[in-house]
UniProtKB/TrEMBL annotation:
Its EC number is 2.1.1.148. FAD binds at S69, R92, H93, R94, E101, N189, A190, R191, H195. The gene is thyX. SUPFAM superfamilies: Thymidylate synthase-complementing protein Thy1. This is Flavin-dependent thymidylate synthase. PROSITE patterns: THYX. Belongs to the thymidylate synthase ThyX family. The lineage of its organism: Bacteria, Bacillati, Actinomycetota, Actinomycetes, Kitasatosporales. Catalyzes the reductive methylation of 2'-deoxyuridine-5'-monophosphate (dUMP) to 2'-deoxythymidine-5'-monophosphate (dTMP) while utilizing 5,10-methylenetetrahydrofolate (mTHF) as the methyl donor, and NADPH and FADH(2) as the reductant. DUMP binds at E89, F90, M91, R92, E101, E102, S103, G104, R105, R173, R200. InterPro entries: Thymidylate_synthase_ThyX, Thymidylate_synthase_ThyX_sf. The active site is at R200 (involved in ionization of n3 of dump, leading to its activation). Its cofactor is FAD. It is an enzyme of class 2 (transferase).
């Protein structure tokens, strides 16, 4: 028995990403508890709050001297919607991360596709390892949008044609491009997130320069906004020490 595809949806186009903090157990106190247990044993939250300057100093010391394990005793789960090519870059980050992505084997994929906004720099100049991106011309911007839309529509029509003929979803999805939006849950701790941000965002305070693809940087920026509110002392120490993960 074959699956019957649902009524064909019209393609839609986005230039943004979605990042939602679904749940967390993350706070600066998690770092402090973990760091002090070796010398002070178990401590209450009230004890940790008695001396905020000392707490900030300890977190800064751990960050500066790269004592990383105390930053692992927390958890953040994000819901992320972004183009598939963003998720392929995400999967390079494996230590301290867990992922579950929507499956094209088990559900019919919806026609939501990525098209760069006008602010997205289109032209790469220079050789690998030493290049920069610059603004494209209006003609290049129009060409990019038109060609991508045409390609997306054709590929999704082919996908729907195969489904209508009874071809399995896991086979039919092969014609879809990496500009298709997917969604996933991504869970990490502060240490793994700091490593991600160090590589996937550009920042004036970073000691080590990074040149991420803009689309994954957009995701990183939104994740960073959530994390900064959860762990402000840790976030301040991360920036003060060159945005290098301990």
């Amino acid at each position: 028995m074959t699956d019957t595809p649902t009524e064909t949806a019209k393609p839609s186009f986005r230039s943004d990403v979605t990042v939602e903090l679904v749940k967390h157990t993350a706070g600066d106190s998690d770092v402090l508890w973990a760091a002090r247990v070796s010398t002070a044993g178990e401590q209450s939250l009230d004890e940790l709050r008695k001396d905020p300057d000392r707490s900030q100093g300890l977190i800064n010391y751990l960050m500066r001297d790269r004592h990383g394990s105390p930053f692992e005793h927390n958890s953040m789960t994000f819901f992320i919607s972004a183009p598939i090519f963003v998720f392929r870059e995400f999967m390079r980050h494996r230590v301290g991360w867990s992922y579950n992505e929507e499956s094209g084997r088990y559900r019919e994929l919806q026609p939501v596709f990525y098209i760069p906004s006008e602010s997205r720099k289109l032209v790469q100049q220079g050789r690998p390892g030493k290049y920069e991106f610059v603004e494209g011309t209006q003609a290049q911007q129009e060409l990019t949008g038109r060609v991508m839309e045409d390609s997306y529509r054709q590929s999704y029509e082919a996908y729907q044609e195969m489904l209508a003929a009874g071809v399995a979803r896991e086979v039919a999805r092969s014609v879809l491009p990496v500009g298709l939006y997917s969604s996933m849950y991504a869970t990490c701790n502060a240490r793994s997130l700091m490593h991600f941000l160090g590589l996937r965002t550009q920042h004036e305070l970073a000691k080590v320069p990074s040149f991420p693809q803009r689309e994954i940087e957009m995701v990183g920026e939104k994740m960073e906004e959530h994390w900064a509110k959860l762990m402000p002392l840790t976030y301040a120490a991360f920036n003060a020490n060159g945005r290098i993960a301990p």
